[in-house]
Amino acid sequence: MISRARREGIDLIVEGAHIIPSNRILQDWKNQGGVAIGLTLTIENPSIHQERIEAREVNTHRGASRYLASFERIRAIQTALITRAKGSNWKVIDTHLQGEFVEKVRQQFDEEWYKLR
What we know:
The chain is mainly alpha-helical. The protein has one domain (2-101). It is built from six helices and two strands; from the N terminus they run H-H-E-H-H-H-E-H. It has helices spanning 2-7, 23-31, 46-56, 64-69, 71-87, 101-116, and strands at 39-42, 91-94. It has a two-stranded parallel ribbon. The longest helix has 17 residues, at 71-87. The protein starts with a helix and ends with a helix. The model has no long low-confidence stretch (mean pLDDT 85).
């Protein structure tokens, strides 16, 4: 996927809770001339995390109860991802504390872009 995107000159955002932070992902992209940063978006506060899951129910076909029943497991996975992100020098952004986290992500991309240019 990374090689094809670079070959075709396509920008790429790989996202999702299923992405395990790793320098290999970033290095593959950089080795082919791309700008790459690793970001892990989190919600540190458990109460706010639950509220976001409940609010998301409006936009998904799966009920919040399914996720809330596994909430402790979700939190454990998030903790493991944060640990992995920090060990791989990925940025960790708490979306609750960083109100304008989209702007924060843009800033991270810009900083990396200008470092390499």
